[in-house]
Amino acid sequence: MSIGDPAPLGCRWSLAIVATLLAGPCRTLELRRRVGGIRLKVLSERLRALERAGCVARTEAPGYPRRVWYALTPTGRRLGPVLRPWAAAGVAWELAEMVLKCRWTSEIVLALRAAALRPAEVRARVPGLGKRRLFARLAWLEARGVVERRVVPSRPPVTVHRLTPRGRRLAAGLARAAARDLLALAAGRVAAGRVVVRRPPPASGGARREAASAG
d(Cα 163, Cα 114) in Å, to the nearest integer? Predict the structure, then answer.
């Protein structure tokens, strides 16, 4: 899988499939029943993408009728410490998939995990994140109940962003992934058995000066 390919775990249903396979190998129809609500065609497409990413292995038994099982590879099982707590906390798979798929959103959520921050402070903690992209991502996260805005009554008034309870549950899993070097894997940036990290471009001189003044 090349760096330019879409992240397979950022696609709808992919996290639910991996989380289901954490319990053990499944045949196709059994997996569809356990995941629930997924069309067979979509399930087949997601399984092929997860195979290409090295997260899922397909085993076909000889004989007739054909019997096929899907199981997690060691790479896929590494996601267990992230997905199990998300499931226990009631984090919606669709929300987690969107956050992983959308560039910069996981970094912003992690930056807000420690404290409420002004936009300039968020940019200082996420190198390479432009101002326009930051506000677009904050609005996206706010619309999904992950982040909320708060105006601090000061002179002049200051707007800060902070995580909602839903956002804190999501951030806890992202932090576990980051601590285990799994964030790139969770976002699907995997190739030939290794994690491929998309490094942000170096900050410009103006961005560095703004970050320094925000601190």
Answer: 9
